[in-house]
């Protein structure tokens, strides 16, 4: 019967889907058997292979017999009056045995590199203030010790870093525990307790104050902050002292905030970790905040997840850097 629609291909009859053939079961093969097999194939002799392995000839023969039985019972070598020769089955097996041996050697090399922190990777994150001094000092020391480790770094707020840690995208995160994020899923490795400074223009009346100052003295000032809100930020210190600061300028970048302060546009809070890089035309005043919880800086890792050797080593470098960072010696003028 002719096709009534010549522009369309004729319809083929529906063919039943063929059943998928099952994979044959994996043979239960010892890597020792494969090693002995390759040695015998290389030397063409059970005796010479036994000598190179430091075994007896009968031990080598038993290993080959075990391998042949595991692969179905066919011979892998023809036994000759002098030595042995690969059978067709033996020749088929050689490249597979070599691939397994090379894969195991490769795995051994990579695992050794991980243990010795000579390779592998380290994925870490840090909040912005920690990136000002603490993390660079630790990273420089880590790099000098372990140049072969691949590094990836992220910067962000503590809640986001903890989310990335939970999702398995980071091995370690340097965080501040003043955030609102729940901390139960994490192991916190304490690095330091951080003090707080208020930055004022160099000509400000308080610039020459002796000793710590109460933020209440700046209740009427314009404030420069990274967000318009107060809760969950450094400006919570002002709430504890009985006033809500007036955020006149929202400036996210740390050095830009300093520029606003130097221009006389307001004051801002500076954590001690960032004080080392403060410009010289502003003054830093230590904040008197009696009874306030310490701003703890920790290295967070996922609870129940084994640390890689690289992460363990970086944690040690962070602890060393925390002991060296001059928390109380800011780079700008300190009253």
Describe this structure in words.
The chain is of the alpha/beta class and 335 residues long. The protein has 10 helices and 13 strands. A 5-stranded mixed beta sheet has the order 4-3-5-12-6, sandwiched between helices. A 4-stranded mixed beta sheet has the order 10-7-11-13. Residues 328-335 have low confidence and may be disordered.
What features would you highlight for this structure?
single chain; 335 residues; 10 helices; 35% helix; disordered C terminus
3D shape: rod-shaped
Order of helices and strands: HHHEEHEHEHEEEEHEHEHEEHE
Radius of gyration over all CA atoms, rounded: 34 Å
Q: What is the helix fraction of residues, given as a range? A: 25-40%
Total number of β-strand segments?
13
Summarize the structure.
With 335 residues, this protein is an alpha/beta fold. It has 10 helices and 13 strands.
């Amino acid at each position: 019967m002719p096709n009534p629609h010549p522009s369309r291909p004729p319809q083929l009859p529906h063919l039943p889907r063929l059943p998928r053939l099952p994979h044959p079961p994996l043979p239960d093969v010892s890597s020792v058997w494969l090693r002995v097999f390759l040695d015998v194939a290389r030397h063409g002799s059970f005796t010479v292979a036994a000598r190179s392995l430091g075994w007896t000839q009968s031990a080598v023969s038993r290993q080959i017999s075990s391998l042949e039985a595991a692969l179905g019972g066919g011979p892998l070598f023809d036994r000759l009056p002098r030595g042995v020769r690969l059978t067709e089955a033996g020749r088929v097996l050689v490249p597979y045995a070599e691939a397994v041996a090379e894969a195991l050697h490769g795995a051994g090399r990579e695992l050794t590199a991980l243990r010795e922190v000579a390779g592998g990777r380290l994925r870490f994150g840090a909040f912005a203030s920690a990136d000002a001094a603490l993390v660079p000092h630790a990273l420089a020391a880590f790099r000098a010790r372990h140049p072969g480790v691949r590094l990836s770094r992220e910067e962000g707020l503590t809640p986001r870093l903890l989310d990335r840690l939970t999702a398995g995208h980071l091995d370690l995160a340097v965080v501040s525990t003043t955030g609102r994020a729940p901390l139960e899923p994490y192991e916190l490795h304490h690095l330091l307790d951080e003090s707080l400074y208020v930055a004022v223009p160099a000509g400000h009346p308080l610039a020459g104050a002796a000793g710590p100052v109460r933020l209440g003295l700046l209740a009427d000032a314009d404030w420069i902050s990274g967000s318009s809100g107060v809760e969950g930020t450094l400006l919570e210190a002002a709430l504890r002292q009985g006033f809500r600061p007036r955020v006149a300028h929202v400036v996210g970048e740390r050095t830009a905030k300093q520029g606003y302060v130097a221009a006389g546009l307001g004051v801002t809070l500076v954590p001690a970790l960032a004080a080392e890089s403060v410009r010289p035309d502003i003054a830093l005043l230590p904040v008197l905040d009696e009874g306030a919880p310490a701003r703890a800086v920790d290295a967070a890792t996922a609870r129940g997840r084994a640390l890689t050797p690289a992460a363990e080593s970086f944690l040690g470098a962070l602890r060393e850097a925390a002991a060296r960072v001059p928390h109380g010696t800011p780079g700008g003028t300190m009253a």
